[in-house]
Structures are given as C-alpha cells and as structure tokens.
C-alpha cells in the first residue's frame, strides 16, 4: 500500500510543482522568475520587447517591484515554500531602498517578500545591465583586477540611493533648484554618490561656480576620501576639474598628497581612460605651484610604465608641454636612463620620439648624443630604426653628421632591410648623402641592392637626390649602374633601369 501510494503522491507533487512554476512566470520590476530560473532584464522596460539575461548567482539576488498587485505577488510566493528547483539562497528580501533606476514612481521601501526564497538586500550593481549601470556602482573594479591589491577607500557595498525623488526629496534636496537651499541636508556618502551621476555632477559644478567658500568646502569634504573614484568617473571628473580650478592651496595639497602616496594612485589614474584627463588638468593648474614638483616625482617613479602605456604617455607629454624644464629635469634624467630600452620597445619608441621633440635645455643634446652613439644597434632594430629616422628629421647638422658617419660600412646591409632601407633614404636626403654614395660606389653588392625589393627604392632615391642637388657623384653612380644593364632588365632592377633611362634622356 505504501509503495503504490508513493507514485501517486509523487505525481501529485510534480503536478503541483509544475502548476506552481507555470504560475510563477511573472515579472517583478526587472526581475523575472521563469521555469525555476531567475532572470533579470538589463534594458529599459518597454511595453513590447524585453530582453533578459541570467542574473549572476552571487548570493545576492535583487530587484525593485513596480506597479500594482504587490500583495498578490507576495501571497503567490508565500503560498508554496518548498520548490526545490528554485536556486537556494540564505534569505530573499526585496526592500526598494528608494531607488528607481528607470524612473519608476513607486517607492517600495520596506516591502519584504517571503524570506525562505533566498532574496537579500538589493545590490544595485547586479540589478542593471552594463549600459544602464550607474557609474557610481562600478567603482569597485576600475582596472579589472589590476587595482585589487591596493586597499582603497571605496563606497559602501550598498550605498544609499540618491535621486531627485525618494529620500533626498523628503529631506528637502532638489537638484532642479540651482540654489544651495537643500544642499546642506546631504549627509554621509550622498555627495560623492551624486557627484558620480550626470545630473549630480552638473548640479555640483553649478554650485562651485558660485565661489562660496562654505559650499565649496562642503563639496570638497564630501569627495576627498573618494578622490580617486571621482577623477576616474565619467561624470565625476568634470566636478574634479571645476574644484581644482578654484586653486585653493590647502585643497590642492590634500589632493596631491592623496595621489602621490605609496599606493600608486597617480599611476592608475594616469592610465585610466577618464583619469588621464583629470591628471592633465591637475598639471595645468599646478604649473606654477611648488606642488607640481611632487607630481613630477611621482610620475618619475612610474616613468617606464607610463611611457609604454598608450594612455599614460600623454600625462608625461603634458608635463613636458606645461611645466618648465628645471622642474622637468627628473623626467629628462629618467628618459636618458631608459633611452635604449624605450627606443627598442614597440610602444616605447613612439613615446620616446614625442619626448625627444619636447625635451629642452642641455639634457636634449645629452639624449641625442646617446642615440647617435648607439645608432648602429638602433638602426637594425625595427623600433629603434624608427627613432633614428625621427632624430634625423630634426635637421640638426651635428646629429646628422654623427649618425651618417657612424653608419659607414652598414649602408648596403641596411638597404636590404625593410626598416633599414627607409633610414638609408633619409640619409641620402640629408647633408650626409656623400657617406652613403661613397659606400655604394666602392661596394661589389650594388647589383644586389638594385635588384632587391627594398634596395631598388634606395638606389632610385640616390639617383634622384644626386641629380637634384647637382652632386658630382651622380655621374659616377650612373656609370657604375650602366655596367649592369642586362641584369637590370628583370625583376626589381627594372625600376632602377627605367629611372636611369629617363635621366639619360634629360642629360
């Protein structure tokens, strides 16, 4: 009897569970419970289309209820407490915390669902999709793990929701009112939270423009502990820029101290897509302040990493453009010390070229001489070759003569290389042309150069430049190439032969 009753009881429970799960296919705000799966809608709620993505099962499921029928939904969930197919969490609690990400008018603060379904306090970061997340909530992983080992002052895991309605409106704060009337009612983290939203940032910027020291100080005190997050936020960075433009020496010193501590904040801010603008603005404001020396020192400690970073290198260039050469001397020394490493680095060579164009004073000649002394090594490196070409392009006679002299004996070899051929052409277009021509005239590899995929361009440049400048070596080069006429009729040599024929006709 017991055995025969079990299948019926099991079927009955399965039928009940199935019916319950079908009934449970309902949408709570942007949280959807469907077929035992918890899903969340990451897009703005619309009437017709709703695209859902799986809610990460991180132990904190969240939602905000909307619309009428709340009591009905609560009773539906509480009507059956043992549905084993649903994910099991310790508690499930939906309190609206006064936050409506899509502008819902309902405020469901304090509403609680059945606690046995595993819902805990809603965490706004998990509630919305990437495109809808408030920039504030994404402060935790600014560098995808790069910054995790640094212990930072960060916002609470569940910050108070701050909107134009809800808790703030009840406390008398209204962002649409540009006066400072309700501003002093803000407490705790509400200032930094607002500052990292589009509307809040604009509101605070307007207050800063009033230039009321009391208001400015209140705003500053509300953001200084989170200055790193503010500087790297899409909207917060604009407030940061407005604050430092006031040039309050005490506030600027506090900011510099925060950034130049041993945690490397200035480096991570400099390589951040938004933070780099904040640092550049800070350098501009501190241009004539003694504090800029502290910033330069901190940048020197991360000189290599900034120079090889596509974003960070612009901070170094900002220093070179804005700060005087005496205060930049530490950067100059670092560049000289790491010159060869940077010159042979894929991204470092680009930064070094920009650095060379900006460096001033006696350190400039010191850096150029260092490159000239190692020109043979650099000329045969794909990245270093690029640096040598840039230095030649500066049109400094002593640099050109030194480079062209040092490369004697290597011109034929370089002419057969992709990067090297460009360097030889640059030498032919400079005042050091004769060094190249003498080597070609004495070489028994001239035919090889003429028939090479890269070398033929070098010889064409040699013929054009010698003819244009009226060099007496032009005729000598033509005569030597004429001895290879038959061999030049095939392959890349035909390019050289065609140019020779055209020049003979002109002569």
What does this structure look like?
With 507 residues, this protein is mainly alpha-helical. Helices cover 53% and strands 3% of the residues. It has 29 helices and 4 strands. The protein has a 4-stranded antiparallel sheet. α6 packs parallel to α9. The N terminus is likely disordered.
**Distance from first to last alpha carbon:** 119 Å
Fraction in beta strands: under 5%
What's the total count of β strands?
Answer: 4
Low-pLDDT stretches: 1-5, 18-31, 42-172
Count of helical segments? Answer: 29
Going across the biggest sheet, name each strand in turn. Answer: 1-2-3-4
Helicity level, as a percent range?
40-55%
Summarize the biggest pleated sheet. 4 strands, antiparallel
Query: Given the helix and strand composition, which structural class is it?
Result: mainly alpha
Q: What integer is the average pLDDT?
A: 75
Shape: elongated
Radius of gyration: 35 Å
Keywords: Cytoplasm, Repeat, RNA-binding, Translation regulation
Domain PUM-HD: 164-504
GO molecular function, one term: RNA binding
Protein name: Pumilio homolog 12
How would the blueprint of this fold be written?
Layout: H1 2-23, E1 26-28, E2 31-34, E3 37-41, E4 52-54, H2 70-78, H3 124-127, H4 166-170, H5 190-195, H6 198-209, H7 213-223, H8 227-231, H9 236-245, H10 249-259, H11 265-270, H12 275-285, H13 291-300, H14 303-307, H15 313-322, H16 329-337, H17 339-343, H18 348-358, H19 362-373, H20 375-379, H21 382-392, H22 397-406, H23 411-415, H24 418-428, H25 433-442, H26 446-450, H27 455-469, H28 473-482, H29 493-506
Antiparallel strand pairs: 1-2, 2-3, 3-4
